[in-house]
Sequence to fold (358 residues):
Amino acid sequence: MTDLKLGYGLELYRGAKLEVPVDTVRLCEDLGYDIVWTAEAYGSDAMTPLAYLAATTSRIRLGTSVVQIAARTPAATAMQAMTIDAMAGGDRVVIGLGVSGPQIVEGWYGRPWGKPNAMLRDYVAIMRKILRREEGVTHDGTQIALPYTGPGSIGQGKALKSIMHGNPAIPIFIASGGPMNTALAAEVADGWLPMGYGPNGADVFAEPLTKGFAKRDPQIGGPETFETYLSLTVEITDDVAASIARRKPLRTMYIGGMGSESHNYHRDAMARAGFPEEAHKIQELVLAGRRDEAIAVMPDEYIEEGSLLGSRKRIAENFAGAVPRGATGVTIRTDQTEALELLADLAGTRDTLTETLT
Fold:
């Protein structure tokens, strides 16, 4: 799989304290990994760690998977992207955008949920204009207008062009699971971070992707340049059953409790991946306070579907089948340096195998 790119997924946003594993990121860089991803929820932010990593690495791309669009205006996100990319030496930053959910958008950021698909469209369009610096930025979108002339305006807004001459080609990715935002990603973005892709993702998402590609602006490249980054959880272990069991509580919490009853992208992602009944039952039980029962509903197959667990030999044997058709890259989520090394060997990101698979 020499054409498959590898990413390393940092999950800093989950911790009560922030510790950036610089040495591990440097190892990934040495192993030929393409990108390191950060994220945010309602604690540590995704952009600041990338600035830190820009100073401690030299080649690996620095990506967000994702920054929440309710947290910043498109101008603020573009400014941070240009700044970090310049600090990193250029052509290294990738901005993955996501809408989050209404509980965070309205509860944490104090923004209206509104129309997230239309908001994403305006957001990407404005970021492109800022990065390209072709003229003072104006935009007449359904969700965002520049200059602003709405309630509270004194009418003195001016169409401005970035003082900084940043990288106009900073890639913009969109995270999505539903058909509307997936079609939008194919239409306006450089890449896609899918939720609920599953083994048959290429078929499940074929219609919205085809719809989006048909409207794609040639200026951002044809469909052949479009990147699709999936995720794989990896653990080298002698006890696969125990590894699966350890992952069920956190996955259950996300599917059952990270979102409202009506808006839960993690539940929907599990349903799209082939487990609709289990996804809805898990949410029902979690919302009813029956957490242990919800964990018991979680199928082993669903945990294994996005994972490579077991001995080095088992992981090697299952690797090809674990990467669904349509993926151009996979983000490895692990706390084992030996797993990062093994995946580099299996994906061919470094020249030769360094250890014998036993």
Notes: The chain has two domains: 5-234+311-347, 238-305. The chain has 15 helices and eleven strands. The two ends are 21 Å apart (CA to CA).
